[in-house]
């Protein structure tokens, strides 16, 4: 979704050895940044507050860019949760672990390279096509 956006937003936090600690992806809207995804290397750095640190850097950057709002899709926990306004949302997961869905993904992966180009791009959302 971020890669397809007109104005993608990506921010990362690296260790001094070059290893990624945390990555945020989202999109820009007029006067706002929208955080859609954050991945943290919690396995190796479980005692560090990677989420809080990176979001702090993101907020500072958005302020410097003149943004007046940060939307965090699906909400946030402490300490930022004290400063947010909740927006009712609904999440729908289409990637169910059932047998039929796995079969459909296998079908798309196998036949995807032979699909017409206009269908191949849409099928790539269901399963990676080589």
The general outline is globular
Order of H and E elements = EEEHEHH
Counting helices, strands and paired strands, the structural category is: alpha+beta
Compute the separation of the termini in Å. Answer: 19 Å
Low-confidence stretches: none
Biggest beta sheet attributes: 4 strands, mixed
Helix content: 25-40%
- Count of extended strands: 4
Q: How many DSSP helices?
A: 3
Q: From the alpha-carbon coordinates, what is the Rg to the nearest angstrom?
A: 18 Å
* Average pLDDT reading: 84
Describe the strand arrangement of the main beta sheet, using strand numbers: 1-2-3-4
Q: Estimate what percentage of residues fall within beta strands.
A: 15-25%
Properties at a glance:
130 residues, alpha+beta, four-stranded mixed sheet, globular
Descriptive overview:
The chain is α+β, with helices and mostly antiparallel strands. It has helices at residues 50-64, 99-111, 117-123; strands at residues 8-14, 20-29, 32-40, 69-72. Strand 1 (8-14) and strand 2 (20-29) form a beta hairpin. The radius of gyration is 18 Å and the shape is globular. The two termini are 19 Å apart. The mean pLDDT is 84.
SSE topology:
Elements: E1 8-14, E2 20-29, E3 32-40, H1 50-64, E4 69-72, H2 99-111, H3 117-123
Parallel strand pairs: 3-4
Antiparallel strand pairs: 1-2, 2-3
Summarize the structure.
The chain has 130 residues and is an alpha+beta fold. The protein contains 3 helices and 4 strands, in the order E-E-E-H-E-H-H.
